[in-house]
Amino acid sequence: MREAVELYNKGEYKEAFSLFLKNPKNSEAQFYLGMMYEHGDGVSCDVEKAKEWYRKASRQRNPDADFRLQSINQKTNCRC
User: Residue 39 and which of 21, 25, 53, 72 are 20 to 30 A apart at CA?
Assistant: First the structure.
């Protein structure tokens, strides 16, 4: 997971995305996949997919995912 996060932080989104997808049950990977879909980092921006990934991470008690999910639900205008 560390390598995927480092790639994400460097802006190497496509590589990070593929590594996160290899860990679909990991709450940190789920959170980052949500971020990537919310902001269009290396993927097409898709708020509904972002919410799906945030919900998965939230079910595993990821507080960052809880925050993003609440925030995205309150937005009236998304960057997408």
Answer: 25
